[in-house]
Amino acid sequence: MQDQSRQRPLRSRDAADALRLDTETLRGFREFFDTDHPSTLACAANLAMDLRAVGRVEEAEALHGDTHNRLLRTLGSGHPAVAQAFDWDHRADCDIDPMPL
Question: d(Cα 34, Cα 14) in Å, to the nearest integer?
């Protein structure tokens, strides 16, 4: 099993694809849940990483800071998701598994 903590760096095309997908996902989560829902904030943390990977550093840092502050208000400083979102090196796992039939 591959160690998830050591992810490979994104290539340019991968980063652009991730940016597009995470932008669409965040938009949908904001509409379906709300801006402060933990799943929405996980998507926002991932999008901040994508923005940074494609060189949009100012946008990335602004979104990252806003996301971290929202997580602090929503979950509190002791929650592991808050620490993970503050870490630029680990993407939030936003996989949604289908319900078992």
Answer: 28
